[in-house]
Amino acid sequence: QLVTSSGITIESSESTVSIVAGESTITVDPEGVVSIKSNGDLTVEADQNLILKGQTITLDGNRIDINSATDTNIESGINTNIDSNVKSSVTSASLTEIKGAVVTIN
């Protein structure tokens, strides 16, 4: 165990290596699984492209906002589903297009 002057701890065991700062932890295990846990905000920032890549990517929260300064594209190789238990809205300040080989409304 190594403790820095600011109280950040680096812990190593036979099964994991962890960096602990307050209540936040980054852990790596021998299989390469990386876990990041924070009780506060967690920011990932890049000056260039930021790519999240995985077999399955899950965003789970009470509220999820996606914002872009120019274009937002959602593409799927097979199926795209948008489900809501209450209200759904599509709003545009300009032209709104709905295209498909067959379009079913209600």
What would your notes on this structure say?
This protein is mainly β and 106 residues long. It has a domain at 2-36. Helices cover 0% and strands 19% of the residues. It contains no helices and 5 strands. The chain has a 5-stranded antiparallel beta sheet, with no helix packed on it. A hairpin with a 5-residue loop joins strand 4 (24-28) and strand 5 (34-37). It is elongated and about 60 Å long. The relative contact order is 0.07. The model has no long low-confidence stretch (mean pLDDT 93).
Topology:
Blueprint: E1 2-3, E2 9-12, E3 17-21, E4 24-28, E5 34-37
Antiparallel strand pairs: 1-2, 2-3, 3-4, 4-5
